[in-house]
Design goal:
Strand order of the largest sheet: 9-10-11-8-7-14-15
Mean pLDDT: 89
CATH class of the largest domain: Alpha Beta
Number of domains: 5
CATH superfamily of the largest domain: Beta Polymerase, domain 2
Shape: elongated
Helix content: 40-55%
Length: 564
């Protein structure tokens, strides 16, 4: 029996109590295949080179399965790790993990005795932040989340909100928007989605292969729309090949979070009434959000899905994140691997479109240039000072076009700018890699754009009608390319043409021209074009002046015998 007032000693776990001792040491210069053989022979789950470098057996196995067995295993390793003494207490270990470490090595002298993996942090609660959602959208989001939690619990499944909603909640960015809600269910996500659709009156689109569904058009009981809600079965993903779409199977929430792209998106909040607001953060995403750190979940992350590089650029631009050393090593490995036959050009195009939908897409594109990411379009892609200048010019052009209310294909302009200063073979290979064909491919001809800019610069006389005549038959994409290639006067001419010159028309109609004595037929179009050019050059301003010009034009034709 416990004695009143007696102080009992508290048992504090030590690192030796928390570690997995299935570790084997291998040489730094070994290949993936050789390191894998050593790990399997020793029964190890982790291999290490020293007190700062280690790799998981699962990552080594995946690299070998993807045909990367000849690579140095160090390419697949976590580096810069911290080692603690086996006698270190649990608080010291957790302090290291809170700093963003993926694992902690446990040392016995100079030898690696074991490893402690980053695991779910203690269940911090975000219930207070959820309750402080305000406004119509915040109220709708709160109602939706509470309803989802109750429905999941009634079905015997735990329901969570995950992804960007949680990230923004941790960031303290106010009411997360209901159009950006991702729900995850430990169970049958599609069955859950059908119940939620009944409750909200929304329309459910089911994606059976992935165990996901999308709910649109739902509303709260008071009629407030809840926007789009994506619903997924918590799942494990297995990538049969680098860059391929994954095979999926059901899993628990922590394993589901472990399959995601970055730690800042690998968080979920429990919605069941019995666990309302509890944060699941197995990879330290909250600490990384606070530190504005962009961290991948494992060294093969960007090889597994290279489109994550484009997503990383979007997050870095939007949230002010800084890639950590692990991201940079994963990026270098993804570029080194280089070829991804199962990664379609359509997926790469889609990522470029998503970048251009960002509030500041040009900053994200700048990151992609500085990271060397476009070498995944073609290994010979090179970034120069001109590349950055051309991108800055495209940004200015798009800003001007939007101010002038002129429709411009933003992704097309960005692609033109990114490929403009590459050699023709490199640009052509990039176009083929992105599966661009037909008309769009033709509009990406930098040589034709430069030729057009030169012709425009050399016009003599340089009348508005001559500028318009030169530019009128040119497709818009090539016009924008010539703007990128040209000097100040060429850019002014193209802007004038897009904003004013192209839309200019004479005051006279076809009927007016016929009434003035011009026979019906091709001559009517010629006269209207003649009047338009006179108007562009400021030589006619009124209907009377146009009638006089038509009479003079007809007199010349009669004199030449072309009109009888």
């Amino acid at each position: 029996m416990a004695k009143a007032g007696h102080v009992y000693p508290q048992a504090m776990p030590r690192a030796a109590d928390l570690m997995d001792a299935r570790v084997t040491m291998v040489r730094r210069g070994w290949s993936v295949d050789r390191a894998l053989a050593a790990a399997r022979a020793s029964g190890a789950f982790t291999i290490a080179a020293d007190l700062r470098t280690a790799a998981r057996l699962a990552d080594i196995e995946r690299a070998a399965a993807w045909g990367l067995g000849r690579l140095p295993w160090m390419d697949i390793a976590f580096t810069g790790l911290t080692a603690v003494a086996s006698s270190a207490d649990e608080i010291s270990v957790r302090r290291v993990l809170r700093g963003g470490a993926s694992m902690v090595l446990v040392r016995d002298g100079r030898r690696v005795a074991g490893v402690i993996e980053a695991s779910a942090r203690p269940g911090a609660s975000l219930a207070g932040k959820l309750e402080r959602l305000h406004g119509a959208e915040g109220d709708a989001a709160l109602w939706l989340l509470r309803t989802a939690g109750k429905l999941g619990e009634a079905q015997g499944h735990a329901a969570y909100v995950a992804g960007g909603f949680v990230r923004d909640l941790v960031l303290g960015r106010g009411a997360a928007q209901t159009r950006d809600i991702d729900l995850v269910v430990e169970g049958d996500g599609i069955a859950f989605g059908r119940r939620l659709a009944e409750e909200t009156g929304g329309h459910l689109v089911v994606h059976t292969a992935f165990g996901t569904a999308s709910l649109e058009g739902g509303a709260t009981p008071d009629g407030t729309g809840i926007g789009r809600v994506d619903i997924a079965t918590a799942r494990h993903e297995r990538y049969g090949e680098a860059g391929a779409l994954p095979d999926v199977s059901p899993a628990g929430i922590d394993e589901d979070l472990g399959r995601r792209d970055f730690s800042i998106n690998a968080m979920a909040v429990a919605l069941s009434p019995s666990a309302w607001g509890r944060l699941h953060d197995p990879r330290g995403g909250a600490e990384d959000v606070a530190a504005r750190r962009l961290k991948v979940l494992h060294p093969l992350s960007l090889v597994e899905d290279p489109t994550r590089i484009w997503r990383g650029a979007r997050y870095a631009a939007r949230l002010g994140l800084r890639p950590d050393a692990g991201f940079r090593r994963a990026l270098a490995l993804a570029i080194k691997v280089g070829r991804y036959p199962t990664l379609s050009g359509q997926r790469l195009q889609a990522e470029l479109d998503l970048v251009m939908d960002e509030g500041d897409p040009w900053r994200a594109l700048g990151f992609l240039l500085s990271w060397g990411a476009l070498r995944l379009w073609d290994a010979s892609y090179r970034v120069t000072g001109r590349s950055r200048a051309r991108l800055a010019a495209a940004r200015s052009l798009l800003r001007w076009a939007r101010g002038a209310r002129i429709a411009v294909d933003g992704p097309g302009l960005a692609l033109f700018a990114l490929l403009f200063d590459q050699s023709r073979p490199v640009a052509d290979r990039c176009v083929r890699r992105l599966a661009i064909a037909g008309g769009p491919a033709a509009r990406l001809d930098a040589g034709a754009a430069r030729d057009l800019a030169r012709r425009l610069a050399c016009l003599d006389p340089r009348r508005p009608s001559r500028v318009a005549e030169t530019l009128r038959p040119v497709p818009d994409g090539l016009l924008l390319g010539a703007w990128l290639a040209g000097g100040r006067s060429v850019r002014r001419d193209i802007e004038w043409f897009l904003h004013e010159g192209r839309a200019e028309r004479p005051l006279s109609s076809g009927d007016d021209v016929v009434a003035a004595g011009v026979p019906r037929g091709p001559l009517v179009g010629q006269v209207l074009g003649f009047l338009r050019d006179l108007k562009l050059d400021g030589r006619v301003r009124t209907m009377d002046e146009e009638r006089a010009a038509v009479a003079e034009w007809m007199k010349v034709l009669v004199t030449k015998g072309d009109l009888r």
